[in-house]
Design goal:
- The complex is a heterodimer of chains A (456) and B (623).
- Chain A is 45% helix and 16% strand.
- In chain A, α3 packs antiparallel against α4, α4 packs antiparallel against α5 and α14 runs antiparallel to α15.
- In chain A, the strands form 2 sheets. Chain A has a 7-stranded mixed sheet with strand order 3-4-5-6-2-1-7. Chain A has a 7-stranded mixed sheet with strand order 9-10-11-8-12-13-14.
- In chain A, β13, α12 and β14 form a beta-alpha-beta unit.
- Chain A contains 16 helices and 14 strands.
- By secondary structure, chain A is an alpha/beta fold.
- In chain A, 42% of the residues are buried.
- Chain B is of the alpha+beta class and 623 residues long.
- Helices cover 36% and strands 19% of the residues of chain B.
- In chain B, strands 1, 2, 6, 7, 8, 9 and 20 form a 7-stranded mixed sheet that branches. In chain B, strands 14-15-16-17-13-18 form a 6-stranded antiparallel sheet, with no helix packed on it.
- In chain B, α1 links the parallel β1 and β2.
- In chain B, α1 runs parallel beside α10 and α12 crosses α13.
- Chain B is globular.
- The relative contact order of chain B is 0.12.
- The chains are: A alpha/beta (456), B alpha+beta (623).
- The structure holds guanosine-5'-diphosphate.
- Guanosine-5'-diphosphate (GDP) binds next to α8 of chain A.
- The site of guanosine-5'-diphosphate (GDP) has 17 residues of chain A, from α8.
Chain lengths: 456, 623
């Protein structure tokens, strides 16, 4: 086994509805957990069978209850890391998880380094490389939707869809190659119409995968969102409203597995990453205040812009500048302070922009549900049954595959012969092989013989 | 007679006078080496034991390349074949291929005559039983009479004769194809010298008596009206002298075969060797594709002066009585008389991973191997390897650098690289789908790709050289002219363009641009522009280069990338176990294959891109 230490960490992102898990791994993990966990059935963890869940309490060393939890034991080698693993599942928020974590450390565990569980799983031969990557995604998942996506990956769903796409291209190519290499055998002709249909189909599949990739990326990395508006329009109040509530997810609590502090807001499953929260909050410093100039620089990095306008005041020159700025950008307009007497109406703003407009008040909480829904709609429906491409590299490969299929279609429409169609199909097949780790030429040849009755 | 006596001393001795052996011997002799070609029987030089045809997709390409390099097969085929057809005409210019029906006897006679009249070349009927090897270097061969021939190099081209076994139904006996002897002791000699052997099998159909066939019940297949030619040297049109016929099996045929499957050698365990997937016996076709109601059969004449017909598609090793029974269910074959039964043959061949890309064995200096002995199938594949082995044996003798053709410049390069890098688990057949740059490897430009090598090696006759240089300069001239002539839209020009169905132009352009339009031909442009008069072959090159330029350039870019790895030569004495960052598997595989270049290394299964990066760094450090 790779390491003697027993390690401990908060191992999932803390969502508003999610379960927080503290995971221990190593030969002493059961002993460590046993010191702070008290089962309702009074059994010692050492006597509990592998893969069974036990309900009980975590108590601190003064005997006070910290949380009611479920503990799951997985004994070596049938565990994620191939070591003894204990999972403490808590419904408590970040603070409770922190407390439980520090109790495990006091009980003899060492704080895990970032990705150390996966590393152990990998080194102990439990995971292959792609799976390990997916696990890293799970570790970094911002919301439970993101977690779901990563888990799909782990189950090999994406792989199977890409393999299915590759299989279709392979079949088509094998057909063409059989016609070319065995012209005197009985290989059925391939009509231009059928060729085009098949290529169109493949293109549709790629498009699907790529669309879901863009969405999946939002779930992994957060939706980069800029909150802009002139000073005093209510930016930091909105930020505070969103982060003070239990929606705030601060994944990177010191003492967990990451160092960089990033703030995410969970809007109905969408992890929203607010750009420059410090700048927004730093209201005392007038220089730092976010005016038009600052807005200008912020929106470049944003996938979504929340543009704020004070509904209790008439539109100023600065407001008009901001309206100009957000033209043709993906924006939701928020009319703030609607608890105050209205100076500008939705109708008025509508004339000036195509963007969706929502009235909000951080005092009363009005409009916050609509804002949440607007963001969810903005991201689009994520089909969890669909697969997700994981990395930029894979997406990049799929884009290239897409280009080749388009080129093949152009050749076809230009009336070129099948050999020319095969050139791009072959390139597409080779590229997909870079994802699935399969070769092209030998597979095409195998396919020919498996599919067609060749031979004289 | 003395038991061991030295008869003579040669530069190159070729064992086996099949398609590989002949090309090897001719190439070595033509390169000035004193060469001996040995055969089991002088009656059977250049025999075609299987189908009476040459060419087809990829195989036809090989013949064209062989010809461009100064080989004999293309010329012989043009001179002696009796029907010619171009296949794949509507599928793309690069995959078009010529296939011809051979007259087996005339082909053999032609080749025998060439061999007997080539300077530096002796032809002898000898059953070679032993390779004489000293200090991992071949020094001679010994025949069954105890006669010894000393030599600097030897080329193994023993076809399917190594430990050959013929199987028909329940009967099996030692032998080569067509009632020949098998070379049994030579196999022992190879084993003794630590050459790894494997066992392959292949099969042929029955030959039937033409007088018992009813051709009126079959579809007739004529040759092309104006056929292509294999050789760049053939000036006269080739002639169609016979027809082929098409008929089909039916349910009754299949029933008989199914009923007798238990008597098939592959069922009764008589056959252990691995057979080719592209040439399955009729029994395995019926097992593998049970839903197919009929299989097509081509009835092909074996020659002009014989009644023997070859039943293409009916390869079988079922017992003789079953062969007669099922053949007679077929339309046109109701009264058929079999002249020779179909049979399966099992034979030893060497694992080609033991070869360098020069076709020399890695562990025995001066010993080369070519053809079916290397695990390939097909006359064309054999001939192509024979030529390369002959060229490189001569290079060995003359201490010149060897010829290693790249995948990016020839099918021959693909063939040999596949063999020595990936090996093969079944008799290897060339297919166009194996060539990743096949758009560039067309049969129409084989001379442009390869004849410069022939000239350099001394394998191009003055005539070949003249024809090649003429074509080259015509292409250059026409291309230059097409670029020089600028055309500007005006009424008069557009009228004449419309008249010729070329279509009007809107902008000033090079004349070459017009050739990129579909259906525009050089000959048409010649009617209104001052373009040089050039041969049809040159016209074809100019047209193809322009019309398909987009695709050609795309592949050329890929080739450029490919060649970068290919040109990084790995020294033979690398100790891969010393390169610590290589994966364990890569170290083992690299040590075994001993790739000649980084490119070849990258194609070895189990060597991944990370390993290649490691090797690149290592190469840079050790420059
Ligand atoms: N009545 C009311 N006042 C608000 C609301 N949101 C913000 N304010 C007030 O507006 C002022 C400026 O808000 P702040 O969030 O600091 O604006 P920022 O400069 O854009 O960040 C503060 O005094 C807030 O209390 C709201 O929804 N209703």
């Amino acid at each position: 086994m790779y390491n003697k230490d027993t390690i401990s960490a908060i191992s999932t992102a803390v969502g508003s509805a999610g379960i927080g898990i503290i995971r221990l791994s190593g030969k002493d993990s059961i002993a460590v957990a046993d010191k702070i966990f008290f089962a309702k059935n009074k059994k010692s963890l050492r006597k509990i069978e592998t893969k069974t869940a036990t309900l009980g309490y975590i108590k601190n060393f003064s005997g006070e209850i910290v949380d009611e939890v479920i503990v799951l034991i997985m004994r070596a080698p049938k565990s994620y890391t191939c070591e003894d693993v204990v999972e403490i599942q808590s419904h408590g928020g970040g603070v409770v998880l922190q407390k439980i974590l520090s109790l495990t450390l006091q009980a003899g565990a060492r704080l895990a380094e970032r990705g150390e569980f996966t590393k152990r799983a990998f080194l102990n031969g439990r995971l292959d490389l792609t799976q390990a990557q997916a696990v890293m995604d799970i570790i970094q998942a911002k919301t439970s939707t993101a977690l779901n996506i990563a888990q799909k990956q782990l189950q090999g769903k994406t792989g199977s869809e890409i393999r299915a796409l590759r299989e279709e291209i392979l079949k088509l190519l094998a057909h063409i190659e059989a016609l070319i290499d065995f012209p005197e055998d009985e290989v059925e002709e391939l009509s231009g119409g059928s060729l085009q249909n098949q290529i169109d189909n493949q293109l549709a599949q790629i498009k699907n995968l790529l669309t879901n990739f863009e969405r999946g990326k939002i779930f992994r990395e957060g939706l980069a969102t800029a909150i802009i508006g002139k000073p005093n329009v209510g930016k930091s109040s909105l930020l505070n409203f969103l982060t003070d509530s239990d929606r705030a997810i601060v994944t990177d609590i010191p003492g967990t597995t990451r160092d960089v502090i990033e703030e995410f807001i969970n809007l109905d499953g969408v992890p929203v990453k607010i750009i420059d929260t410090a700048g927004i909050r730093n209201a005392d410093n007038l220089v730092e205040q976010i005016g038009v100039e600052k807005s200008r620089s912020l929106i470049n990095d944003a996938q979504l812009i929340l543009a704020l306008f004070d509904s209790s005041k008439n539109l100023s020159a600065e407001d008009f500048e901001i309206l100009q700025l957000i033209k043709n950008r993906r924006t939701i307009i928020l009319l703030t302070k609607t608890d105050l007497p209205e100076k500008i109406s939705v109708a008025e703003i509508e004339k000036l922009t195509d963007a969706q407009i929502i009235k909000i008040s951080t005092k009363t909480g009005a409009g916050m549900y609509e804002l949440q829904q607007a963001v969810v709609n903005f991201v689009g429906v994520v089909d969890l049954e669909q697969s997700f491409i994981r990395t930029e590299r894979d997406a990049d490969i799929l884009h290239k595959v897409q280009k080749h299929l388009q080129d093949a279609k152009v050749s076809l429409l230009n009336g070129l012969e099948i050999d020319f169609i095969s050139i791009d199909l072959h390139s597409a097949l080779e590229l997909l092989g870079e994802i699935t780790g399969e070769g092209a030429t030998e597979d095409v040849i195998d396919k020919i013989f498996a599919t067609f009755c060749i031979g004289k | 007679m003395e038991s061991n006596f030295v008869v003579d001393k040669y530069d190159v001795i070729v064992i086996g006078a099949g398609h590989a052996g002949i090309e090897a011997a001719l190439a070595a002799a033509r390169r000035g080496c004193k060469t001996l070609l040995t055969t089991l029987s002088l009656e059977n030089l250049a025999m075609m034991p299987c189908n009476p045809s040459i060419g087809g997709p990829a195989k036809g390409h090989l013949v064209r390349e062989l010809d461009a390099l100064g080989g004999e097969m293309g010329i012989a085929a043009d001179q002696t074949c009796i029907q010619f057809r171009t296949l794949n005409t509507g599928k793309g210019v690069a995959v078009q291929a010529l296939r011809a029906q051979a007259d087996k006897k005339i082909y053999q006679a032609y080749m025998k005559n060439i061999c007997e009249n080539t300077a530096n070349l002796d032809v002898k009927q000898i059953l070679v039983e032993e390779l004489l090897i000293e200090d991992s270097q071949v020094v001679g061969v010994r025949g069954e009479q105890g006669e010894t021939f000393l030599t600097k190099t030897a080329i193994l081209a023993a076809g399917t004769y190594l430990n050959g076994a013929i199987i028909i139904g329940e009967n099996s006996y030692a032998g080569g194809p067509n009632g020949q002897r098998a070379a049994v002791k030579l196999t022992d000699s190879l084993l003794k010298n630590n050459i790894e052997l494997r066992r392959f099998k292949t099969g042929t159909p029955a030959r039937v008596d033409g007088r018992t066939l009813d051709f009126s019940k079959m579809q007739v297949q004529h040759g092309d009206a104006s056929p292509l030619r294999f050789s760049f040297l053939t000036a006269e049109p080739v002639l169609n002298k016979v027809d082929c016929y098409l008929t089909y099996t039916n349910e009754r045929t299949h029933e008989i075969i199914k009923k007798n499957l238990h008597r098939a050698p592959m069922a009764n365990g008589l056959i252990k060797g691995v057979g080719p997937r592209y040439c399955p016996s009729i029994e395995s076709k019926i097992i593998t594709f049970p839903d197919k109601e009929r299989h097509q059969l081509f009835i092909e004449p074996e020659g002009l002066n014989t009644q023997e017909f070859y039943v293409q598609g009916m390869s079988t090793s079922l017992p003789a009585d079953v062969q007669i029974e099922f053949l007679r269910t077929i339309a046109g074959l109701e009264n058929v008389q079999i002249m020779r039964y179909g049979y399966a043959i099992e034979y030893d061949c060497i694992n080609p991973l033991q070869l360098k890309p020069t076709l020399e064995l890695k562990n025995i200096s001066g010993l080369f191997s070519a053809g079916q002995t290397n695990g390939t199938s097909g006359y064309e594949e054999a001939a192509a390897q024979g030529l390369i082995a002959g060229i490189n044996a001569a290079a060995f003798v003359k201490q010149e650098s060897a010829l290693i053709l790249k995948r990016s410049e020839s099918y021959i390069g693909v063939l040999i690289d596949d063999l020595v890098t990936k090996g093969t688990n079944e008799p290897y057949r060339m297919m166009t789908s194996r060539a990743e740059y096949r758009l560039l490897l067309r049969q129409d430009n084989a001379d442009l790709r390869l004849t410069p090598y022939a000239i350099q090696l001394g394998l191009a006759t003055p005539e070949r050289k003249k024809i090649f240089q003429r074509k080259q300069s015509q292409i250059q001239l026409a291309t230059k002219k097409l670029q020089e002539i600028k055309i500007t839209p005006n009424n008069q020009l557009n009228d004449s363009l419309e008249n010729l169905k070329i279509g009007a132009i809107n902008n000033t352009m090079q004349l070459a641009e017009l050739l990129r339009r579909p259906n525009v031909k050089y000959k048409t442009l010649q009617k209104i522009f001052d373009l040089p008069e050039i041969d049809d072959d040159s016209v074809a090159q100019v047209e193809i280069d322009l019309f398909y330029s987009g695709y050609i350039e795309k592949q050329a870019e890929l080739v450029e990338k490919f060649d970068r790895l290919e040109s990084q030569i790995l020294p033979l004495d690398i100790d891969y176990s010393e390169i610590k960052n290589l994966s364990l598997e890569a170290r083992e595989k690299l040590a075994k294959i001993q790739p000649h270049s980084l490119g070849q290394a990258s194609r070895i299964s189990g060597v991944n891109p990370a390993d290649i990066s490691v090797l690149m760094i290592w190469l840079n450090q050790h420059k």
